[in-house]
Every structure is written in structure tokens, then in C-alpha cells.
Amino acid sequence: MTVSGRIRWIPVLLGCLGVSLILVIYPIYVIRPFRAQGARELAVALMISRFRPGLTVISALAAVWAAIRYRGRWWRRTLAAAGAVLVCALAALARVNVYELMFHPDDHPAFAAASEAKLDKDDKLIVVNVRGSARAYPIRTMGYHHVINDVVGGTALAATY
I need a labelling partner for 3 at 20 to 30 A (CA). Which of 28, 50, 57, 80 fits? Predict the structure, then answer.
């Protein structure tokens, strides 16, 4: 095979790697917490999230095909195979919802008496009082978990923010 026949597979591999990286990283970058998102960039990130599982599989198949077809020195073939494996790993990562991993509900909240609570004077709270039993959930904690599952006054509740 000629040199030009070998080189044409490199752009395919690099393209698959680039597309897969963008499909996985862009939504995570845009939808990260504690950052304002623009309506347009959020719409693009959500659209990418919707289609990325299928697109990354297509990209992985193309990368594996290009790595198999690539004919070059053994160390270049090894790099091509490693690139194809990386694209396949990104296809697997595209199916993981990192926000469910990051923002899991707090099912076992810890509480202290109001006199012992370590809060700043400017901390905001979500306060619940059910049948004389009260709880206060700091917004700082709620901003991370978004959901606190608790039982207050014998009643199960989900405090959300």
C-alpha cells in the first residue's frame, strides 16, 4: 500500500476522536452547576445529549474500522488501535448521566440543634415544620444535592431546591 493510502486513515481516526470528545465534553461543560447558561448553548447541549449515544457508536465503529484498515509501522498501528479504544471508551461514557452521579439525593441528612448549628449569618434556609417537628435545610447544601429525603413529624418528605 502506498504512503497516501496509509495516511487517509489518520484523519478518520482523529475526526472520530474529536467528534466523540465534543459530544461527551460539551454538554458537561455547559450544564455544569453554579454557572449561568444561555438559552441557545443550553438547547445545543441538550440536543447533543439526546443524540450522542448513537453518534458516538457510529464514531466508534468508524474508528475501529479505520484502525483495522490502517497499514503502517507497528508503533503507528498501536497508536491507531489506542485511539480506537479511546473512541470506544468515549462511546461508553456518553451513556453515563454524570448529573445523576453528582447530584444524588441525600437520603440520610445529619442534623444538629439550632444552638449548635454552624451557619453563617447570611445563610438561607428551607424550613419545614410538621406537627411540631421542625427541620432547616441550608440552601448551600441543597445547591449540591438538590433533593433531601427526610421524615419530619412522622411524615416522609422530599425537600428540593
Answer: 57
Q: Judge if 73 and 138 occupy the same domain.
A: no
C-alpha dist (Å) from residue 83 to 6, 24, 69, 72, 78: 16, 16, 13, 15, 9
Domain of 7? Answer: 3-101
Same domain as 48, residue 93: yes
CB 91 within 8 A of CB 56: yes
Reported as a single tens digit per residue, the pLDDT across 31-47 is 877 678 889 999 999 99
The answer to whether residues 90 and 142 belong to one domain is: no
| 72 contacts: CB under 8 Å, gap ≥ 6 | 6, 80
pTM of the model: 0.63
Examine the domain organization and report whether 23 and 87 are in the same domain.
yes
Going by the DSSP 8-state scheme, the letter that residue 108 receives in this structure is S
Amino acid at 108: H
Q: What is the pLDDT of residue 18?
A: 95
Q: How many CB atoms lie within 10 A of CB 80?
A: 24
- What is the average pLDDT value for the chain, to the nearest integer? 85
Instruction: Say whether both 117 and 136 belong to one domain.
Output: yes
